[in-house]
Write a structure and sequence with these properties.
Chains A, B: Pfam families: Pyridoxal_deC. The structure is a homodimer of 475-residue chains. The first copy, chain A, has 475 residues and is of the alpha/beta class. Chain A has helices spanning 2-12, 42-53, 75-87, 98-114, 135-154, 160-163, 174-182, 205-217, 240-249, 287-290, 305-312, 322-325, 345-355, 357-380, 406-422, 450-466, 469-474, and strands at residues 128-132, 164-169, 190-193, 221-228, 253-257, 282-286, 298-302, 384-391, 394-399, 429-433, 436-442. In chain A, the strands form two sheets. Chain A has a seven-stranded mixed sheet with strand order 1-7-6-5-4-2-3, with helices on both faces. In chain A, strands 8-9-11-10 form a four-stranded antiparallel sheet, with helices on one face. In chain A, helix 3 packs antiparallel against helix 13 (345-355) and helix 5 packs across helix 11 (305-312). The first copy, chain A, is globular. The N and C termini of chain A lie far apart (56 Å).
Chain lengths: 475, 475
């Protein structure tokens, strides 16, 4: 019944408004005030899902979902999750379910090789990979490992942790500053280097050098750089090669956050965007974003797993066992923030096998081609401009609209986005970079076809036609 | 096909050895060296799961799985996960899928009321609940909130964070010390108060007072107490009422970790174990442990959600939206460590509804009765003793075996456990408390019936009969 429900959902998905049109608080008066005393039939629950839940869903799997970054489901991913829930094992240690640990290590080497990650990131090269829920967890784990390694060198002392400085650009995902805060980095020691349009919003290595030198001059200790390949606002790429060179000189841990764009590196023609990763310490991508693996599945590789283990391992008596005591097995609990962990590699393994690498590459390429097509349509309309050169499957654009300065253009585009999303026919989100408010069309939903992208452009044009631009500009 | 596979798995589960009997590294030579270029049929993958994965599974759903704490799957829980994966929405903000946020808030109030949590923990009382993956995340989130609130009072200064002290007992789960380390509490400032057999391994309030006073005398700042209801080693209960009284006097945040035993509080006869929770700041239980909700589902309630939000909220431009800007909606991203979040409340809602409260209570009570029966069997055999008075559904016992001191008895019981688990017929784990090595029989798997517990006792007796106790004692 549930399988049928899901099948029907996908059959009907194009009839739903992409962005839920409910108002805050809609659900509370539709449901009972408390849990039922007696069992209710599953039919009843499914009916309520149809009637009450579906209207409150913003449909991430809708082919016209172009907001944020994609979060791709697929048959293999969903069936993998189903199996994970069915077996419901807790693979914190090897002994707690050997297959969960061993399959994860194997699949992480498979995917690492597909990405052409340097050997030192793979188990076969004395590094290794681990699956977490989200990039936030990957950042936390690597930050703590780097922090403790540095404190072991400089001494925890009275003010050790207060001296540590971390670096990112103003395009880096907010998860990084949050993770830094969580691990006790002083807020004033999160160095946010501005990125500009001249570098297509990539982090400029010279700016990093300047920031690091200035910190060292003040007696502070550079700790960590979060470089991004495919930033959230504009899919910008920080240049890894020169950034890692700077970092090495100052003994800074470099994490490469390729949450969205990392997947593209399984295509040889995109692999160059992570050239230089050999100088980094850790690398992560979210297979749940643009790699058909349902939420959640963040893949993290590190060159030095012992750095994670030194910070994150626990060995309470009640978890001791012969296999762990003898060494020679991976206990993933010591690689991550949490103890319990789901059997997530099952779905990644199923996605890789049931699609095959060739199809996965074609899938990614088809999204890039659709984004190219949209970019072309935008460029052909004199009212619009492409704000940032397109990479991958995301187009950042705006209406120029005769506005004499960005402030007015920003207002116009904000209104435009509201009316686009209000149509319910597509869902896009926005970004602001270099002071420019832009619309983001992120192609990536599993069901998106060329016609949906053409339709998206139609919606944009129609809403632009209907806008009282003069009125807004005139204010 | 996958549904059939899972159905067959449960039909056959009693034929598998509970504890996987594979050797480290068994899987690598059974799988190809890299991901396939061409798609493979799902039949092929399912066959490999049967042949290669199942032998490496330690079967947490096996009715003779008595190790660690239970991690209960159920039909409703599995179907809930399936729906979550099918819809595959990312509910970080209200707008990103209003139903995901609103249903979570409603279900957390439902469950909070079932537990008879004081009103200030519920949304209807200006507190509120949130679902995370694991207790580790709940501890991290509350620790950071408490830390930042305290630092706002005393000043971050040069050494602010270095002054903060956190408290627990030596029975507290290792996740707490790990979380404290992650948020930058100095390792020397994690105050581990020894609990003894005289208090049934509950944390003694007088000992807490002594520790806190001593820290204050040294100029340190008490920050956080993690009290446990149902500790991992022995299911001990820290006395919340007097502990919260001490904490209040010294302005210490109290978190109640009821990961396993919290579920029992839906039965009125067990509710007294959390008496005093009204003095705590936060409370968590894992619905995936003993409440039929598949991994992962940690339910956290806090009295002051704004403390979480002050520490954990982010508001980058690319996530801004009208509903959030206007307030009046919950953006759960600001209540937790990670940004992305699965639609986890769906399965908890389905578990509550498709079982009904009455059946859920009976389910828990049946496990407690089985543990009572086992306890009785142990007590009747002169070779064995109950080490800690049983509470809930776990029995802590050991073989006395004529050993003149605990060291020898510990060795005897370690060997006994090895042979029990080596049989493949049951899986138990152990704990050491007060220097005593004991075996833990944790009843809680969904399929466990009285006959499985009787069989477990038979295995214990048989292995005890076969043991050369004299030989071990004689060494």
């Amino acid at each position: 019944m549930v399988i049928d429900f899901i099948a029907d959902y996908y059959n009907n998905i194009e009839h739903y408004p992409v962005l839920s049109q409910v108002k805050p608080g809609y659900l509370r008066h539709l449901l009972p005030r408390s849990a039922p005393l007696a069992a209710e039939p599953i039919e009843e629950i499914i009916k309520d899902i149809e009637t009450h839940i579906i209207p409150g869903i913003t449909h991430w799997q809708h082919p016209a979902h172009f907001a944020y970054f994609p979060c791709t489901a697929s048959t293999a991913g969903i069936l993998g999750e189903l199996l994970t829930a069915g077996l419901n094992v807790v693979g914190f240690s090897w002994v707690a379910s050997p297959a969960a640990t061993e399959l994860e290590a194997i699949v992480m080497d498979w995917l690492g090789e597909l990405l052409n990650l340097p050997k030192p990131f793979l188990f076969s090269g004395n590094g290794g990979g681990v699956i977490m829920g989200t990039t936030c967890e990957a950042l936390l784990a690597t930050l703590v490992a780097a922090r403790d390694r540095k404190l072991a060198e400089i001494g925890e002392g009275e003010i050790g942790i207060g001296k540590l400085v971390v670096y990112c650009s103003d395009q880096t995902h907010c998860a990084f500053a949050k993770a830094a805060k969580i691990v006790g980095i002083k807020q004033g020691n999160v160095r946010v280097v501005p990125a500009s349009k001249t570098t297509s919003f990539g982090l400029c290595p010279d700016e990093l050098v300047r920031a690091v030198r200035s910190d060292r001059d003040r007696g502070l200790v550079p700790l960590f750089l979060c470089a991004t390949v495919g930033t959230t606002p504009t899919a910008a790429v920080d240049p890894l090669l020169p950034l890692c060179r700077v970092a090495r000189e100052h003994d800074i841990w470099v994490h490469v956050d390729a949450a969205y764009a990392g997947a593209a590196c399984v295509c040889p023609e995109f692999r160059h965007v992570i050239d230089g990763v050999e100088g980094a310490d850790s690398f992560s991508l979210n297979a749940h974003k643009w790699f058909l693996t349902t939420l959640d599945c963040c893949c993290l590789w590190v060159k030095d797993p012992s750095a994670l283990r030194k910070s994150l391992s626990t060995n309470p008596e009640y978890l001791r066992n012969q296999a762990s005591d003898e060494g020679g097995v991976i206990d993933y609990k010591d690689w991550q923030v949490t103890l319990s962990r789901r059997f997530r590699c099952l779905k990644l393994w199923m996605v890789l096998r049931s699609n095959g690498v060739a199809n996965l590459r074609n899938f990614l390429r088809s999204h890039v081609r659709m984004a190219e097509a949209f970019e072309k349509l935008v460029a052909e309309d004199a009212r619009f401009e492409i704000v940032v050169p397109r990479r991958f499957s995301m187009v950042c654009f705006r209406m120029v609209a005769g506005a004499r300065h960005d402030g007015v253009a920003n207002l116009v585009n904000k209104k435009l986005l509201e009316s686009i999303n209000g149509s319910g026919r597509v869902f896009m989100t926005h970004a602001v970079a270099g002071g420019i408010y832009m619309l983001r069309l992120a192609v990536g939903a599993t069901l998106t076809e060329a016609r949906h992208v053409a339709e998206a452009w139609k919606v944009v044009r129609e809403q632009a036609d209907a806008m009282d631009v003069e009125g807004i500009v005139g204010c």
